[in-house]
Design goal:
It contains twelve helices and 20 strands. It has 448 residues and is of the alpha/beta class. It has three domains: 123 residues, Rossmann fold (3-Layer(aba) Sandwich); 236 residues, pyruvate-formate lyase- activating enzyme; 57 residues, Nucleic acid-binding proteins (OB fold (Dihydrolipoamide Acetyltransferase, E2P), Beta Barrel), CATH 2.40.50. α4 links the parallel β5 and β6.
């Protein structure tokens, strides 16, 4: 076994995956080889998630498992969101950790590894800068994660929103936008290697450019991307913030076919009192008007959102308002989470008074209602033809996603026949389920 090998486990969201891939790139540029098996690695890295309780537990358990089987010639590094906020606590919970690297300085991974190699460390070495320096010193790493013909491209990191339930500003720091020129250059590089779907991500994509003094920064960036990478087939925007989907953004989305008619806008709730306790935008009238405006101006718009049930103080009446809202708006996709108490957030004084069984019952009720809505919307596509990005095969089926489906969180399209992986092909829809669609390839293709 060589010391110049590493094994990296990435937990959490797509934004974390981008950080993991950037760290891997820097290590490989530094002469390290990535290996699939922890047993073959000289360096073990876990890029942790610290967003909510279950994610924290998964991160700690993953570290414990690697630590339990770690040999004396291996290094174990805990990186990412959980360690940025709870580094000392994580090291205490998991004996055997050699290094603690926070999410704000992922780009120092090679420096941390070299330091651990060179220095005796009876105690873990901590690398947890307080300053949020994302976007300013990325050491040449492309801020993207490529999976097949799709790629997540991070345009900013951190968040300046005051959401009471969220620990992201405590973990990531304030929002820092990446330079426009860098994003355009990376988009070009991704196009050249065959990426066909570019997925823009940040904690809040609609806040892009605020710190750069840009007005309507996301809309401006989208326009420049369509000009700079005309060969990119699909551009998808994730993580929009309510109240910041501007008229110009709507216009740009409607005028450029590359930009998918897909809006991911996490609303979190629909009752003004609940939203006020969450320190979220509570103007539900704005939501109605903006979604109506988008649907009127952007053909075939698909809308995804997320909600939290069981937030402190949520009454049955407030929850029913959320249910009524869901049935009125009829979102294409909905994700729901049960409230997770996070110490240190501004919701901490509210505690966690809603019983777990009430949270579970409300979650089940919401998801059951949404499944029926999603099924009805999916059924409306039967007989229509959708372009599908093919990502895999199963016997005589081609499996992929339409513009309505973001990777991992939305549905799939299963088409009879075989099309080339990475191709975008028309599929005639013949069947619908709550999350997925079925169909046949709309034109004859060469069987692989």
């Amino acid at each position: 076994m060589t010391k110049k090998t590493f094994h990296l486990v990435s937990l959490g969201c797509a934004k974390n995956t981008v950080d993991s891939d950037s760290m891997s790139q820097l290590l490989m540029d530094g002469g390290y080889e990535m290996v699939d098996s922890p047993r073959k690695a000289g360096v073990l890295i876990v890029n942790t998630c610290g967003f909510i309780g279950p994610a924290k537990e998964e991160s700690v358990n993953t570290l414990k498992d690697l630590a339990a089987h770690k040999r004396g010639d291996q290094l174990l590094i805990a990186a990412g969101c959980l360690t940025q906020r709870y580094g000392v606590e994580v090291a205490r919970q998991v004996p055997g950790i050699d290094g603690i690297l926070g999410t704000r300085r992922w780009m120092d991974i090679l420096q941390v590894v070299d330091q651990l190699r060179a220095t005796p460390h009876p105690e873990p070495i901590y690398h947890l800068p307080e300053a949020a320096t994302m976007g300013t010193d990325e050491k040449g790493a492309i801020r993207a994660s490529v999976a097949g013909a799709s790629a997540y491209l991070k345009i900013a990191d951190g968040c300046r929103r005051p959401c009471a339930f969220c620990a992201i500003p405590l973990i990531k720091g304030t929002m820092v936008s990446r330079p426009v020129e860098t994003i355009l250059s990376e988009a070009q590089e991704l196009t050249e290697i065959g990426v066909r779907e570019l997925i823009l991500i940040a904690q809040d994509t609609t806040d892009y450019g605020h710190d750069l003094g840009l007005k309507d920064g996301l809309a401006s960036l989208l326009e420049k991307l369509t000009e700079h990478v005309p060969g990119m087939d699909w551009i998808r925007v994730m993580y929009s913030y309510p109240g910041y989907v501007t008229d110009r953004m709507i216009e740009v989305m409607s005028n450029h076919k590359q930009i998918l008619p897909y809006l991911d806008i996490p609303l979190q709730h629909a009752h003004p009192s609940t939203l006020a306790r969450m320190k979220r935008p509570a103007n539900i009238d704005w939501v109605h008007k903006t979604l109506a405006k988008m649907r009127a101006n952007i053909s075939d718009l698909s809308i995804r959102t997320t909600f939290i049930v069981g937030y402190p103080g949520e009454t049955e009446q407030e929850f029913q308002s959320l249910m009524d809202f869901i049935q009125e708006i009829r979102f294409d996709r909905v994700g729901a989470f049960k409230f997770s108490f996070e110490p240190g957030t501004s919701s901490e004084p509210l505690g966690d008074p809603v019983p777990a069984e009430v949270k579970q019952e409300r979650w089940e009720r919401l998801m059951s209602t949404q499944q029926n809505i999603s099924l009805q919307i999916n059924q409306s596509y039967v007989g229509k033809t959708l372009d599908v990005l093919i990502e895999g095969h199963d016997k005589n089926l081609s499996i992929g996603r339409s513009y309505r489906d973001a990777p991992e969180i939305d549905g799939l399209v299963f088409a009879e026949g075989q099309a080339e992986i990475g191709s975008i092909v028309p599929v005639k829809i013949s069947g619908a389920m709550a999350y997925d669609l079925t169909g046949t390839l709309a034109r004859k293709l060469i069987t692989l």
